[in-house]
């Protein structure tokens, strides 16, 4: 389990707002790309949480890696690929509220991308979810079991009875089929 937690912490990013406080999180998916939610990017850029439309290509935001707390923030931008932005909130197809970011610069020492899995039958698998609730700048994570996948591809999670649910989150966390995670 320690290896899984280290991989999670190494690949987890903290998206910072203009005041350098956490506004959300995301995950490193390869050596350059990060996956987060569009509403998180909106807040980081000072836009309305559910503001529609891709931000300007020149927009940059600060990120920090959870596993490298002493490192300086790194700048990131929205990837140029056409499908790298999907407006918030999550819609009826479950394919919205997503943003693919690119890192402007090298990764901090010791940071590696996680091994990504696509589960054909995710029900019954254990996962860890992580986030940065408004009330706690240190971040939080919880173990959960995947109960089912709905018709939109969203996962219904049952928190582990021994693990507290991420406290203070404004919205329930949902994951879609290709969103990244670390299986425990």
Q: What is the β-strand count?
A: 10
CATH architecture of the domain at 2-104: Beta Barrel
The number of distinct helices, counting runs of at least 4 residues, comes to: 2
Alpha carbon gap, first and last residue: 7 Å
Q: Indicate the structural class.
A: mainly beta
Strand content: 25-35%
Largest sheet: 6 strands, antiparallel, barrel
Give the CATH superfamily of the domain at 2-104. Answer: Trypsin-like serine proteases
Helix proportion of residues, in percent?
Answer: under 10%
Question: What order do the helices and strands follow?
Answer: HEEEHEEEEEEE
Overall pLDDT level: 75
What topology, given as strand order, has the largest sheet? 1-2-3-7-5-4
Query: For the record, what CATH class of the domain at 2-104 applies?
Result: Mainly Beta
User: Shape from CA axes?
Assistant: globular
Low-confidence stretches: 1-5, 162-184
> What is the alpha-carbon Rg in Å?
15 Å
Q: Indicate the CATH topology of the domain at 2-104.
A: Thrombin, subunit H
Structure description:
By secondary structure, the chain is mainly β. It has a domain at 2-104: Trypsin-like serine proteases (Thrombin, subunit H). It is 9% helix and 31% strand. The protein contains two helices and ten strands. The protein has helices at residues 2-11, 38-44, and strands spanning 12-16, 22-28, 33-36, 60-65, 74-78, 85-86, 98-104, 126-131, 140-149, 155-159. Strands 1-2-3-7-5-4 form a six-stranded antiparallel beta barrel. The protein has a three-stranded antiparallel sheet with strand order 8-9-10, with no helix packed on it. Strand 2 and strand 3 (33-36) form a beta hairpin. The radius of gyration is 15 Å and the shape is globular. The termini are close together. Residues 1-5 and 162-184 have low confidence and may be disordered.
